[in-house]
Amino acid sequence: MNKLFTDVAKNAAYVLSFFAIIAALFIVALLLEKAAQKKNGIKEPVFGVRKIAMIGMFSAIAMILHLFDFPLPFAPGFYKLDFSELPILVGAFAFGPSAGVMMEFVKILLKLCIKGTSTAFVGDLANFVIGCSFILPASVIYTFRKNKKSAIIGCVCGTLCMTVFGTAFNAIYLLPAFSKLYHLPLEDILAMGSAVNPLMTEGSIVSFVAACVAPMNLIKGTAASLVTMLIYKPLSPVIKGHK
């Protein structure tokens, strides 16, 4: 915990920008959720006692899954896959997109408190915004019309958004940021990709993210979507406290 406070102090400006992004995404999610409630004639508080408790529970489950990440054979070892978006997607379907953003934030906060950061918060920010790029589209579409068709459309859109956004975010921001953070030439990072993935063109950041990053996000989104579609309906009454 002391190390975490030290990291925050050293990277105060970056941490503040992190919180600004979190606040912006939460406001967007809240406005869209309010619009969906108005459209559907629903009048209920955005955050009730049960919802807050469930946000905490799903966030804790997501954090545990986040810790059990693992590498993939087609990407360098510093890219790891986890299924922490699964409980968050279930929770966001049950309680709305603003709850989804909160769960993503609490997941990262819990992980930082337990494990700290090894990337000066760069990787943690990436995990948050890429996770939100999946959770927000999926839960917003489902919130406007809660039926199986909308759930499927939401999951497909969320998976595609995460794949496209995550791939572009890695190319434009994340890989250059890691290169600067670890004083490692970008060419060396790209070489790690071409060493494990023959589909990548050597020295090309575009082919790196297309061959290594895009498939990982596609696998993550597809797996979370499929499991959610299987378990959400039987779990929904229990999650919401309905008999």
How would you state the average pLDDT, rounded?
88
Shape: globular
Radius of gyration: 18 Å
Taking pLDDT < 50 over at least 5 consecutive residues as the criterion, the unreliable ranges are: none
- How much helix is in the residues? over 70%
* Beta content: under 5%
Strand-pairing-aware structural class: mainly alpha
Largest sheet: 2 strands, antiparallel
- The number of strands is 2
Largest beta sheet: what is the strand line-up? Answer: 1-2
How many distinct helices? 9
Topology order in helix (H) and strand (E) letters: HHHEEHHHHHH
What is the straight-line distance between the termini? Answer: 42 Å
Summarize the structure.
This protein has 243 residues and is mainly alpha-helical. The chain is built from nine helices and two strands. Helix 4 (85-95) packs antiparallel against helix 5 (97-115) and helix 4 packs across helix 9 (205-240).
Task: Explain what the structure shows.
With 243 residues, this protein is mainly alpha-helical. It is 78% helix and 2% strand. The chain is built from nine helices and two strands, in the order H-H-H-E-E-H-H-H-H-H-H. A two-stranded antiparallel ribbon has the order 1-2. A hairpin with an 8-residue loop joins strand 1 and strand 2. Helix 2 runs parallel beside helix 6 and helix 4 runs parallel beside helix 6. It is globular, with a radius of gyration of 18 Å.
Which tags fit this structure?
mainly alpha; 243 residues; single chain; two-stranded antiparallel ribbon; 2% strand
Describe the secondary structure blueprint for this structure.
Layout: H1 2-10, H2 12-39, H3 49-67, E1 70-71, E2 80-81, H4 85-95, H5 97-115, H6 122-144, H7 148-181, H8 186-196, H9 205-240
Antiparallel strand pairs: 1-2
Helix pairs in contact: 2-5, 2-6, 3-4, 3-5, 4-5, 4-6, 4-9, 5-6, 6-7, 7-9
